[in-house]
Amino acid sequence: MTMTKKSLDELTYKIIGAAIQVHRELGPGLLESAYHKCLGHELLSIGLTVRSEVSVPIIYKGINFNSDLRCDLIVNEAIVVELKSVEILAPVFTAQLLSYMRLLQVPKGILINFNCANIFKEGQRTFVNHLFRNLPA
Hints:
Blueprint: H1 5-26, H2 32-45, E1 50-55, E2 58-60, E3 63-65, E4 70-75, E5 79-84, H3 91-104, E6 108-113, H4 119-122, E7 124-128, H5 130-133
Parallel strand pairs: 5-6
Antiparallel strand pairs: 1-4, 2-3, 4-5, 6-7
């Protein structure tokens, strides 16, 4: 299947819907690891491809350095999903997600905070980069 802006938007909708389902079942206040496992399961159950704890390569001046960086989830090799369970989403979390998107060469990312009252209204932020902007509609 060809990656388009529309297909990525539809995939984003499915991921956020799955996060809402997990949040509805578990509620706020748990550790990030609990949400991570449950969201991964939920995404797989709706037929999506999910990789968890994906190593993020650091390539500096043409040299590939081993790193301990890990993104939480990559869905359908197209969207990085970073999970949090915090009081406030600090700006560093956005910077982290944008860096993962760039280093992994994926066009879209979603930052999800499960420690909130409503995932849809306040618990998620979606980001795109130049790769997304260059995709066909």
